[in-house]
Amino acid sequence: MNADSHMKFHHQHQLPTEPIPASAYTSREYYEREIELIFRKDWLWVARDEEIPKAGDYKVKKLEFANTSIILIRGKDQVVRGFHNVCRHRGNKVIPELGDETFGSKKAAVMTCRFHGWVYGADGKLIEVPQQEKFPSCFDKGDNGLMLVTTAVWKGFIFINLDPAPQKSLPEFLGGLDTHLGDYPFHQMTHAHTYYAHLNCNWKVAMDAFMEGYHVPTIHAGSFPGLSGVRVNDVKLNGDHRSMGVYADDMNPPTPVGMLANSIFNGSIALEQGKNFDLPPTINPDRSKGFVFDQIIVFPNTMIQVGSSLWFTIQMWPVSHGSCVLEGRYFIRAPLTNSEHWAQRYAVVLQRNAWLEDTATMEDTQTALRAGVLDKVNLQEDEILLRHAFEVIKRRIGPVDFVEKDASCR
Amino acid sequence: MSVNLPAAFADLQPFAEKWALATEYERSRARRASTSAELRQFYDKMMSRIADVLSVLDQYPLGQLPDTHRPLMRMALSLAEIAPNVEFYRLDPRVPHAFDEDRFLSRHGNAED
Fold first, then answer.
1. How far apart are CA A307 and CA A347, in angstroms?
2. If I label A166, which of A70, A291, A303, A344 is the partner at 20 to 30 A Cα–Cα?
3. What does the alpha-carbon distance between residue A45 and residue A48 come to, in Å, rounded to a whole number?
4. Does A374 contact B at CB distance below 8 Å?
């Protein structure tokens, strides 16, 4: 095949342009390798600092791909630690869970298992065992603390690593992203609105739907009619991570509620965003007027979008080779007045509706891939971030014969 | 249980029972259970008073609305909930070409307001 001159990003970054084989999205073996070699090895974002601000505050995050749940609890020393939510006695959950995420607070920063009353400190140490004298003499409380999961914090993002001996520190793992995001003031916009959905599709099908601007004029014709002239710029491949700037010629057309809400609080990506702070020089480097947001994709499953008055995240959590959980979080400055609360809710409703539009295609895509009706996925130049994601995963999990065989430009 | 609005907003009273709802989930369900004509009527009526509604609500600090005024805030939030359907989706009560709204859950929205 001749080198297509319009695929210059691909050539510049030495990325192939052949279709992606369907088997990468449907094979159980491929999925199991992704879990073993990526999700159980890499740093994963699981909480924000502000979700558990005080000593004794905790969040329990269910990780179905690893058949475990992680307790993140802030100790009296203000350090957040991670533990498997498993009692060292007979494996009961130390903190009962209500769903994918459970929040609460332990007054004395101690956790008591409800099965037989074993008590653990926020540092994981086993403090008390009722009738300890009835255990054999070799039983030692010192050896039976909660099982630690490595955690680290970056710009208020709490990460875990399921590998007992992580191959890289969190800063090493993030590499150039730290410089790219500079001093972006995440901590000034901590008012979160969270959505989630259990989807019958591979986690990569769901990720792919968000990693390009090509879908915006069609998929978002309903909620973001003004963003039809969307452009992607500033593509950066940053090790296993990647980012791009999203720009648009116009914003949503003026409508009565939209204009009123935006006159009270600039909270929507589809309306003019306020200039509440200076963006780092790496974000919208030309200070273009049409800047919408910069999308930073933290490998493997986190997307962080930063705008000039708001930011939002989208994550996909694998459940099986054909299912995942989508989590979307929208962050703005906390409202100061009732009318600001109202205006923000308009912006959040519009964003929720856009996410409903994004999510519309995913299960259909998986059905077509699984049925063998669609045996490959063709990508264009502006879908370079999907390509990069596929190439990074391929490199990380090693060659899978049937996937290699399927990949050709036919 | 009947919902009573402050006297100054008696003209909104006919819509209060249906739209003064405490959570995003309830407001979204009310929208989807409406006809286009019902959305239009509620939108037009609320738009005629929304400036007054917000100005009265702003007489109280955030989080300290008296019980008498909570239904007004809830109706304003219902206006925000249906606005895209009226202004962008040609009065379709659902989000067109979208994922099943019943399967897309809000965590914040299960809390009051």
1. 14
2. A303
3. 8
4. no
pTM of the model: 0.95
Q: How far apart are CA A191 and CA A158, in angstroms?
A: 17
A window 232-261, beta carbon within 8 A of B: 255-258, 260-261
Rounded to 10 deg, the angle between the A338-359 and A256-264 helix axes is: 120
Q: Is residue A301 left, alpha or beta, with left meaning phi > 0 and alpha meaning psi from -120 to 50?
A: alpha
pLDDT tens across A171-192, in order? 999 999 999 999 999 999 999 9
User: Coil, strand or helix: which one is A353?
Assistant: helix
Angstroms from A220 CA to nearest CA on chain B: 9
Residue B6 has pLDDT above 60, yes or no: yes
Residue A198 forms contact with B (CB below 8 Å): yes
> What's the distance, CA A291 to chain centroid?
22
Whether the pLDDT of residue B49 is over 80: the answer is yes
Q: Which run of H or of E encompasses A102?
A: strand A101-105
Residues 6 or more apart whose CB falls under 8 angstroms from that of A74 comprise A52, A53, A54, A55, A56, A57, A58, A80, A109, A122
Cβ proximity of A315 and A355 under 8 Å: no
Taking residue A80's Cβ as centre, other Cβ atoms within 10 Å add up to: 21
- Exposed, middle or buried by CB within 10 Å (0-12, 13-18, 19+), for A8? exposed
Q: ipTM for the complex? A: 0.97
Report the C-alpha gap between B25 and B109 in whole angstroms. 6
Contacts of A195 in chain B (CB under 8 A): 104-107
Residue appearing with tokens 């986690």: A203
Above pLDDT 70, what percent of chain A? 97
Amino acid letter for position A165: A
Tokens 């973001």, located at residue = A224
Q: In sequence order, what E strands does A249-389 have? A: 291-298, 302-306, 311-320, 323-332, 376-377
A169 DSSP assignment: -
Q: Collect all residues of chain B within an 8 Å Cβ-Cβ radius of residue A335.
A: 62
Contact B104 A359 (CB under 8 A): yes
Residue A192 · residue A330 · CB < 8 Å: yes
* pLDDT interval class at A236 (50, 70, 90): very high
Q: How would you list the strands of the sheet with A80-84, edge to edge?
A: A43-48, A157-161, A148-154, A80-84, A68-74, A57-63, A101-105
A349, B84: Cβ pair inside 8 Å?
A: yes
